[in-house]
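Task: sequence design from structure.
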């Protein structure tokens, strides 16, 4: 399989290459893209020998090191330039939107690890993918779980889908004490190792709200048929309830290599180095999403119900606010106000 990875130096990109390492004869790495982490990118280029790459910063330095390599200034140009079978969309935030649309003409399958592209342009993107016969396989734990459960299930038999949420790093901190939390507190997620932005979004539940919108587009269900429950252990990654009352779920130790491996090898399922669950050590719990505890969740879902333009606006506002928090410009409790300001709510 000929594969291009957009965002190869990020968390999902690195894990994708690790999955490829377990079955290297099945894949040819055509292209890699990077933002600015040139040291790691150089190592990746030497190891995987792609046909073409893109880098947004330090392009001249890269050209000196690899004078015969096709080097593009950004991921959009790379996605336009080379054709393959699988495009892994692992760039974070809205920066993935244009490369995704650029690449949909050149690939048979998109392994999508970016929710913002669907949040902002989901209606247009899913329509285009259907017209071109391109497979969209989600590369995140929740939507891959739903994707897995729905294999062979007629959509008319679905009552609702249930997205599980860990609650993030601050779940056990009383709301009145959030004024004192520091950046390192917010980034200390109990179950997942993720990028900084998505970890902050987990703490505010913005990430789960974006996933609700993403699920709406991926699976074609109205918002009222998408539920969120708090599941602190992150063992059940999401569930599907059918009209007869039965529920299907996908369970696994928290590890992104499962959805990555499945998206690359689909419909095959191969070992990817994830441990089995020890059921004697598990105590699975579920709680309702407390009303008012996560106001940003409500803001984003409401925007999603209004449509893509509203969703794009509030998604951008959230990106701006989270960046300010991570830069130390605002407190955690100020993120909501910044979102409202930038989204003009």
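Answer:
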């Amino acid at each position: 399989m000929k594969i291009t990875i957009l965002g190869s130096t990020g968390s999902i990109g690195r894990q994708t290459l690790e999955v490829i390492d377990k079955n290297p004869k099945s894949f040819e790495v055509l292209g890699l893209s990077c933002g600015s982490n040139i040291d790691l990118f150089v190592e990746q280029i030497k190891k995987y020998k792609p046909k073409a790459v893109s880098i947004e910063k330090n392009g001249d330095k890269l050209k000196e090191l690899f004078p015969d390599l096709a080097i593009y200034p950004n991921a959009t140009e790379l996605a336009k330039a080379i054709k393959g079978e699988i495009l892994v969309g692992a760039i974070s935030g809205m920066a993935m939107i244009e490369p995704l649309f650029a690449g949909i003409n050149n690939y048979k399958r998109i392994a999508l690890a970016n929710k913002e592209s669907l949040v902002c342009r989901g209606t247009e993107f899913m329509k285009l993918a259907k017209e071109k016969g391109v497979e969209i396989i989600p590369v995140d734990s929740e939507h891959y779980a739903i994707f897995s459960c729905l294999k062979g299930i007629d959509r008319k038999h679905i009552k609702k889908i249930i997205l599980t949420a860990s609650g993030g790093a601050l779940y056990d901190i009383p709301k009145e004490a959030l004024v004192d939390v520091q950046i390192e507190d917010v980034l200390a997620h109990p179950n997942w190792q993720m990028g900084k932005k998505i970890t902050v979004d987990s703490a505010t539940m913005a990430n789960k709200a974006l996933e609700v919108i993403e699920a709406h587009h991926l699976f074609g269900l109205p918002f009222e048929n998408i539920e969120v429950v708090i599941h602190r252990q992150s063992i059940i990654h999401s569930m599907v309830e059918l009209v007869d009352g039965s529920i299907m779920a996908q369970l696994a130790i928290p590890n992104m290599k499962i959805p990555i491996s499945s998206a690359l090898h689909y419909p095959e399922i191969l070992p990817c180095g994830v441990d089995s669950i020890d059921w004697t050590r598990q105590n699975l719990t579920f709680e309702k999403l407390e009303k008012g505890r996560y106001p940003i969740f409500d803001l984003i879902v409401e925007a999603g119900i209004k449509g893509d333009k509203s969703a794009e606006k509030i998604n951008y506002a959230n990106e701006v606010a989270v960046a300010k928090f991570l830069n130390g410009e605002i407190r955690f409790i100020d993120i909501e106000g910044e979102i409202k300001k930038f989204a003009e709510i």
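The chain has a mean pLDDT of 94.
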